[in-house]
Structure formats: C-alpha cells, structure tokens
Design a protein that fits this description.
about 30% strand, NA-bd_OB-fold, Rossmann fold, alpha/beta, eight-stranded mixed beta sheet, 3 domains, S-adenosyl-L-methionine, about 25% helix, globular
C-alpha cells in the first residue's frame, strides 16, 4: 500500500513518526517536516497499534536531507535496502541534532530529568560524510561464496565489492586478501577486524603499518592475520596505552572512539578526585581494559582499581594488558558484575569513583543499588543505548544522585546509534 504523509517528529531506530487516519506510522528514511510518499510494510491491514513504512519519494525535503552517501543502504525503492546505515539520507549536522533529540527525549520520558544533551562527532567524519570509520565488519557469504549483506524484507543476498563505512586500512586489507573476490563457503560468516594503524602518515603507508595486525575470521576461525590484535590509545595529556584484544571479541568499532571515550572518562574522574593523591576506583563491565589501564595509571598518584567483566576472554586480555603495562594495582575479576560485587576485599569496598560501561540492556536496578550502597559520591556511566541509560538514570535519582553532566558522542555516523557519557554525583 502506497500513501502520502507529512512527517511529524523523530522516533527511535532511525525512524520518524507520521499518522494515517489517527494510526501511528514509523517511517524509515524520513525527516521531520517532510512531505513524502511511503510504502507501508506488509501486512498493513491488521488492527495493530502502529504500522511501519519506508519512503519511496520525497515531495518536500528537509534542509537536513542529503542524497544517500551509500546508496546500497538507502531505501528499497531507490535500489538500496542492505541495512547497517539507517541515516545515510541525513547530513552529519542533522544526525547530531537527531541524536541529541533522541537522548533528551528518553531522559525526559524514562529518566524523569529535563536536560539538553549536546552530541559531538569526530571532526574528520564531516569531511568524509560519515564514511570510513568502522574497524570491524561482518558479512555473510552468498550462494556464490561472495561476501554479502541481506536485503531487507527478502532472502536476497547483495554481493559487496567494498565497504564504504569501513576504514581505509580495513578496505586495504580486504583488497590485499582478495575478500571481495569471494571463494567462501556459501552461508559462512565473515568477520574482518583491522585496528587503526595510528603510525601511518599517508594512505600509501597503510599496508606496511598494518602488517599482520588484522584478522580475517570465517565462521569464527582465523583464516589470515592474527588472533590477537594490538590497539593503541593516546590521551590528550600524552599518556599512551597499548592493548591486545581477541580478534573475535568486542572493541569500540569507530577508529577514534577509544580515544574520545577514554579522554572523556579520565577527565571526569580527575575532576571528581580534585587532586587527591590516592583513590579507590571501580571499573565495571570493563572489557579488555580500555578504561582500566588509564584509571590505574593516569588519575591519582596512588590508585587501587577493581575491574569486573563477564567475558572471560576479555578479562584474560585485560590482565595481559595490565602485566604488559607493569600495572599491579588492579584487582581484575571475571564474573557477573552483581554477583562479584557481593564479595570484594575491604580495601576496595569504598570507591571514590565508579565507572561503568554496561551492555545495551544497561546496568539495571540491582547493580545501581549496589553501587549506591558502596557510598561512592561519583558515578560515570558510559551508555550505548539512550533508553537503558534513561531507565538507570531514574534509579540513580531515586537513590540520591543528581545528573551533573551528560555528553553524547556520535561514534556511529550514518546510523541511529549513539554513545553517551553521564556523570552522577551524590
């Protein structure tokens, strides 16, 4: 079914809201204020609370609209549909406004706080139109063994000959390894991970700078490169940290995200410590130690750090990273965060600052309560989902904390995802 609608406002997951005869319609590839033709998704004749649809033609465009910078990820009617970039039709400044609005709306609706949320991006992303940032990509082999992505609303696999969202280094490795030529077993899962070569001064230097510091995994097994990858993070004050991470494990995917987030977190910690010579710090959901290492080495003269992470492979990476850095002031533990917090040493039981970077579902009420019970006066929350952050904000507010600072980071350009760092103080 095709119809014409006036788009009203932003919604979630990169969609916007319109109405048809009083019924809410969530529309993909739209912008507020636009008059557009849309095609409703099937089935659209049920008595559902809402419908969904997609733009087929723009009659009156928004000033924030641009031609899709990756057409293959644009609307189906325009030859797109592969997914993975649901904001390719929005200018980078427009994306920042959209994400700011989304975080603010969730904080008001679920967090019960009325706050303006600035969102900043990586400056180079504007020049590159939000392309060239992913250091990890995942694809599936089509029936001819070529790397592909599935087209929405179908079982069709669209073969790829490049990945516009990926970094120059990743695309260079893909070319060198002849990834785009195929030869994979149909249906196999393909993962390519290439840490950003921060010592490369030009595009010509990329292959040599990458060397073997990449991984091509097929169905989870290493086909070429290294199973253990090396990442580097340099803080604004000159501190530099080296991390080894598993090729199949989690690491912030934007080439500059680890640097941006680490600088924000460490700056906030230092401000809360206010020159104190000693401190006890918690790093919860600590992964491979992105924040653990600078917390232990670059915050106070004498620190004790408790880090907790549920993924055993990530904990092994973090422990290896700490040993390599010569840091012996971290108690690094593997296990469920809530269960692990029930039994910790007395010397770590009273944290000055708690840093947490939970999964998409958030920390949830019980962990928030355990943090509050520790008596800490400062909580720094790194969130990859505004909805979960808002729910946990309401919990922290009920526990006596105020939202003292909030900042969004657009480290997922051309997608609806956004990272947010919030500071709660007692």
């Amino acid at each position: 079914m095709n119809t014409q609608v006036r788009i009203e406002r932003y919604a979630d997951q990169g969609r916007c809201v319109a109405h048809i005869d009083g019924r809410v319609v969530f529309v993909r590839f739209a912008l507020p204020g636009e008059l557009v033709d849309i095609r409703l998704d099937e089935p659209h004749d049920r008595d559902d609370r809402f419908w969904t649809g997609e733009v087929t033609e723009v009659i009156e465009p928004s000033a924030d609209r641009v031609d899709p910078v990756w057409p293959l990820a644009g609307p189906l009617a325009w030859g797109g549909g592969v997914g993975g970039a649901d904001m390719v039709h929005v200018s980078i400044p427009g994306q920042l406004r959209w994400k700011s609005s989304t975080i603010g709306e969730q904080m008001r609706r679920l967090g019960h706080v009325d706050v303006e949320v600035p969102v900043v991006g990586v400056p180079d992303d504007v020049d590159r139109n939000g392309l060239g940032w992913r250091t990890r990509i995942e694809m599936i082999a089509d029936d001819k063994g070529r790397p592909s992505m599935r087209r929405r609303e179908s079982h069709i696999r669209v073969p790829l000959d490049a990945m516009p969202l990926a970094t120059d280094a990743l695309n260079a490795v893909a070319d060198r390894q002849r990834v785009w030529e195929g030869g994979f077993v149909p249906g196999s899962q393909i993962r390519l991970a290439v840490p950003e070569p921060r010592n490369a001064s030009s595009d010509d230097d990329i292959p040599a700078a990458v060397g073997d510091n990449y991984a091509l995994l097929v169905d989870g097994k290493l086909k070429s490169g290294s199973q253990t990858l090396t990442e580097t993070v340099r803080l604004n004050d000159g501190h530099e940290f080296t991390y080894t991470v598993d090729a199949g494990g989690f690491w912030q995917v934007h080439r500059q995200a680890p640097i941006a987030l680490a600088n924000e977190v460490i700056d906030l910690v230092r401000k809360r410590l206010d020159g104190a010579e000693s401190a006890v710090l918690w790093d919860l959901y600590s992964g491979s130690g992105l924040f653990t290492l600078p917390l232990a080495a670059a915050t106070a003269e004498r620190t004790q750090v408790l880090s907790i992470e549920g993924a055993k492979t990530a904990v092994k990476s973090a422990q290896r990273n700490l040993r390599a850095a010569g840091l012996d002031n971290v108690d690094s533990r593997a296990g469920d965060v809530s269960k692990t917090l029930r039994n910790i040493p007395k010397n770590l039981a009273l944290p000055d600052v708690v840093v947490l970077d939970p999964p998409r579902a958030g920390a949830k009420k019980h962990v928030c309560e355990q943090i509050a019970d520790s008596g800490t006066r400062s909580v720094i929350y790194v969130a990859c989902d505004p909805t979960s952050l808002a729910r946990d904000t309401a919990t922290f507010t009920d526990l006596g904390y105020d939202l003292a600072h909030i900042q969004g980071f657009d480290i997922y350009p051309n997608t609806h995802h956004v990272e947010t760092v919030a500071l709660f103080t007692k």
